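User: For documentation purposes, I need each entry recorded in a consistent format: the amino acid sequence on its own, followed directly by the corresponding structure tokens. There are two entries in this batch. Please keep commentary to a minimum and don't merge the entries.

Assistant: Recorded as requested. Entry 1:
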Amino acid sequence: MTLAVLFALFLAGAKLDLFPSLPNPFEKRSVDRSQPVLLQSIQQMKRFTGAQGNFQVIVDLDHEAAFLPSQLLGNRTLYVAAGTVDAYVELGGLGPQSVTVSEDRRTVALTVPHAQLAPPSIDLKRSYVYLQQRGFFDRIGDFFSSNPGNQQQVEELATKKIQQAATETELIRQADDSTRTMLTGLLHSTGFTTVTVTIA
């Protein structure tokens, strides 16, 4: 009983700081063991569109008959197509192997894949048939066809031409640069002082 009383008095004295030379058993210290939110933040983005190209192409599609004049058999379509192509970086697949964080959580190195081109998106509101010429037999065929003038064919050809044109631009490089800038700013805002983003 006496020991219990003495122990209680000792704890009370320590609590009231009556023994400054002795450590306070009630003193608390904070230890930050939380994990960085880096990966979750990036994975939620899934895909980052770093650049977009606007394109216009005039498709001149001419179907000619081998032995008949164009007035009888054949058709020609001039189609003005407008569309866009996005260049994006896929971020949803990033895992722990893509990120290196220093022990003091002040330095981070991140590796992301190169940008890639999305399929072209044709803007039907800004695309139109500029000229259409059809032979006599083609006009008869169009009367019974659900797709007069072969609109689908010229749209598909326009899509291929825009896709090819996009590969010859700087869209991918611009998307890589935009992604690096975006991620660097994002990671700085989360507390990292040194950020290295590598496009692999």
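Entry 2:
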Amino acid sequence: MDGDLLPIGQFARLGRLSVKQLRHYDELGLLVPAWVDPVTGYRYYRASQARVALSIGLLRSLDVPLPVVGRVLEGDAGALEDVRAGLEAELARRRRTLASLERVMAGGLPAPEVSVARLPARRVLVAREVAGGPEGIGRATSAAVARVLAVSAGEGEVRLTGVFPVDLDGVVEVLVAREVPGGAWRDSAATEAGAGVLAGGVFAAARHVGPYDQIPLTASAVLAWCGERRLVALEVREVYVSDPAVTAPDRLVTDVLVRFEEE
């Protein structure tokens, strides 16, 4: 055995990793021992491998997933781009959460005026996207909005409606519907975006004024209103009344509707 080799315990202290971590990284091929005793199975490392061990520890402390760590060690220059994007998205989500918390602290839990309305079914253009969980709903909604707006469907005011399930656990399907003035559009437009029918029914409705990120506050209040009356909620809709391109975030108007089962 080479005299420069270090037993796993000594190398673990040198590389600031645990013996358990070193064994795991060996199994993943991230940090392979310089030599393994064929009789005992003991792992031995060289001091020069300490730099790799410390690099792995640093990247893991920055929440870099192990598969990406491997790509970094292999010299993949773009390996950390997705990690950075994910951290930025998480930071933005945290800021939105903080803004909602500050609104509740300043004004208490929302108690909007809730009314009941019966709406007919309407023929619409639709775009669907799937989010992996609540944190991805915003991105999925934006993607669906972009798709349905990209379709040429006649002149006139564009009115968009986001449709969301009541249960947001697990995979969430987001639907964005675009109403077309007069209910008419080119056949090619219907094919590109997907023609559909926005179901009618009875809705509990309230108006939200403020950033889109804080719509869940109003939606929760409307769902609570339904729960207090033992009404089974079927879906949540957001009707985007204002044009965000020309309206300040704190002045955006969104009608929140909860469709519920009729008795």
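Summary note for entry 2:
The two ends are 81 Å apart (CA to CA).
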